[in-house]
């Protein structure tokens, strides 16, 4: 009888073009990649006239909720965060973070659950969420 472990040890995946990143082959680190909806770049940035810091804060929150491991992803919630840590991570002042959060909330991109925890829409606005069929689990 053949041992399953020996069969698996001898099995090698097929090499397909594009599977191997040339930078990784040379031992270099590959950058991380986040999925951001194109409508953010094509529509939201054009129509909403967000400032640099507002874009930084929104992308920071969006990536934490939708692009990283997150227990609250089904609800669209971020983990509880320190505003000071956000400011330090983005190299901006705490006041800039507060002003950006306020503007993003006014635009309907985020909602404050409690201080340091935010609801972030997957498709940026309520209209886009409805258009693309994005729902959120009830809690």
Please specify the SSE layout and strand pairing:
Blueprint: H1 4-10, H2 22-25, H3 38-48, H4 52-67, H5 83-90, H6 94-107, E1 110-114, E2 117-120, H7 126-131
Antiparallel strand pairs: 1-2
Helix pairs in contact: 4-6, 5-6
Describe the structure using short key phrases.
elongated, Arc Repressor Mutant, subunit A, two-stranded antiparallel sheet, single chain, 139 residues, 7 helices, mainly alpha, 47% helix
Report on the structure:
- There is one protein chain.
- Helices cover 47% and strands 6% of the residues.
- The mean pLDDT is 84.
- A two-stranded antiparallel sheet has the order 1-2.
- The chain has seven helices and two strands; from the N terminus they run H-H-H-H-H-H-E-E-H.
Quick rundown:
Helices cover 47% and strands 6% of the residues.
């Amino acid at each position: 009888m053949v041992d399953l472990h020996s069969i698996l040890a001898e099995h090698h995946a097929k090499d397909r073009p594009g599977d191997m990143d040339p930078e990784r082959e040379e031992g270099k680190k590959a950058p991380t990649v986040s999925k951001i909806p194109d409508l953010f770049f094509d529509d939201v940035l054009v129509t909403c006239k967000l400032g640099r810091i507002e874009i930084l804060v929104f992308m920071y929150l969006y990536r934490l909720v939708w692009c990283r491991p997150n227990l609250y992803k089904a609800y669209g919630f971020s983990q509880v965060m320190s505003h000071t840590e956000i400011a330090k991570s983005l190299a901006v002042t705490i006041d800039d973070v507060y002003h950006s959060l306020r503007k993003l909330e006014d635009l309907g991109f985020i909602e404050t659950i409690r201080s340091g925890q935010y609801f972030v829409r997957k498709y940026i606005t309520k209209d886009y969420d409805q258009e693309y069929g994005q729902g959120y689990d009830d809690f």
